[in-house]
Amino acid sequence: MKVKNGDYVLGELIVPRKYKKLVLQEDGTFKTEYFTVSGRKIPLSEIRKRLLKKHQEIGLLRDYDNTHYENLNGEEINRRLQELGENKVVDKDVTSLRQKLAEIELTRHLMVWHDNSSILNHGHHLVMVAPIFDPAFYFTSSEMEAAGKGKVDVSTIVETPHIYIMGRCNSSEAEKIAYSETCREDLMELGEKLITEKGNEVVDVMRFFKGDTPEQQFETGEIHCGKTCGCGTCDALPSRWSDLSYCFQAKLQTVEHRRQKVLAGPAGREKRNGGLRPFDNMKVNELKRELKERKLSTAGNRMELEQCLKEHMAGIQRVPALLFGSESTPLSDLYLDKHEVSSSEPLHDIKEHIKNITTELPYHLNDTERKVFCEAVETIQSTKAQMHGSDYRLLAVKLSANLRGKLRPNVQELLDTLSEISHLLYLSPECRNPRSVLRLYNRTFLHCVLCIEMIGIPKKLTVRKFYGKYFHSISCHTPALARIISLSSLNSEDEERTFNAISNICRQTSSRRPDEIVENSIVRYQAEANFRNNGATLKSQQSEISKISSSLPPFQNTTFSKQFIQRHRSDYQAHLERISDFLLPGKDIWWALTEEGVQFKDGEDEADQRIGGPPLHHFRSSDQVKEEEYLKETWSKCIR
């Protein structure tokens, strides 16, 4: 009855479609196999409409009418644009500025997440979608409270994920990418604007993909394993991820860049091997043809030619997933011209890095330190049957608080920076400001240098494991991403919990027949969502972490001593280039020279923003590549 009345949406059957995949056999040849993909999706257009209606009913949308904008004078418009970080152009007339503000406040941005997991011993692919909290489109929590609507956690409500697609699928890339086709079909409907209660047209933009490392690699077309398996979002080689100055200067690889690199040769354009792995198992004549067209050396034997191509492709094995099947279509025609794959996912990055630290660090401590450290870790972990992301963050805070005075200063500082980084990654969108961005840059840099100094070559873990993707994300991508979006918006705790919720639903209510899992899960998950409060769970976890954090000393300004700068000159300069906009205003604004060294005014007691800038940028008008170019330009001004 609830489905019939429209309270719950069963979605559309994704008509079983046959696809073919090429399977590598033992003799090195490929065999063509056919497989069927089936599942259900709640159309993206339906999700968009339902969320718009729901958020309007709660009163979260600004949705100002034309009279509101017509009554604003030039000063008021400029003030509002400045609040939103959108006042880059100052010479426009009032009419143009008024139109610009209206467009900004009527644009909603979306993010998508997906992953694979086993439900009742059958592999399933789950895709979820959610709006991104934007103070231009939604009222803030403080505004809701000031309006007498009580304490409303707007960002948590807005960013609650919703099931978009669920279907049978194993972990093979061929089957997963088949679901990208129906995603791309739905994206074409983004051109159909929705209408608010006051008659305003809302523009929806698919802005980010978020997910853990394997899903990032799948989405970008990166090789999943092996020595050439890279970051997926920059061109830094995995073998050099512990080289900070090198990584800080690595170039970002956008969806368009990766597409162009694949299609630059005949193998990519001709969809060799079905387009999934066009560069695998190429014959000598194919390699030479590919290299020649890419203007690379064609000298050498097959092994040398393969190596040359691998180094050139730097881990790219195919076009990004959403472009698969529409390789030559312009991104703007697919409504993907503003789409980015997030270079960091806070939940997994900090969780796995804390796990690596607690595993490796004891092997680099003296006997006394090792004993107290291991006892503390064991005591904390013994209370949990399974450690989740929030448990590891709590572990980091407790180690920093409880071991104070029992470890050498540099070990304590490593734990302090680890604890603070986990705190900064989970700041709410309303707490993102220039000071918090600068703080994250400085603390991640200091922490990673301490890791390299204290641990060097790992003794328990491999170099690739300790200085792997999680270390690389925290050192390079996490602070850069914080320039345009609150990192808490990109964590996937709610999405990860969905698989657990669906598994519980299936165990308790399903007939366990594989063909009934999807329908049952989608309907019952919606029914339980009315009673489930993931926001309360997150608040409870965060409250416990904050309670322990309160026992830590106040976060003081970051100071890099003269000795530190001397030991790490190249890394330190590369770090300064990444925060050049905080240097440009001049001495004693965001930084000062002291007898000890260079002090940055990023502590808890410092101002969140300063008159000299820099402004806080935003994902609605900036992206990771624009920020990279902005910093290069700013650095050139600093050294003139």
Structure write-up:
Helices cover 47% and strands 12% of the residues. The protein is of the alpha+beta class. Strands 1, 2, 3, 4, 5, 6, 7 and 8 form an eight-stranded mixed sheet that branches. It has a three-stranded antiparallel sheet with strand order 9-11-10. Helix 15 (346-360) crosses helix 17 and helix 16 (367-381) crosses helix 17. The model has no long low-confidence stretch (mean pLDDT 89).
Give a brief rundown of this model.
This protein is α+β, with helices and mostly antiparallel strands. The protein is built from 28 helices and eleven strands. The protein is globular and about 70 Å long.
* Overall pLDDT confidence: 89
Number of helices: 28
Class by SSE composition: alpha+beta
Helix content: 40-55%
Span between termini: 71 Å
Low-confidence stretches: none
Rounded Rg: 25 Å
Biggest sheet details? 8 strands, mixed
Please provide the count of β strands.
Answer: 11
Shape: globular
Strand content: 5-15%
Tags for this entry?
640 residues; alpha+beta; 12% strand
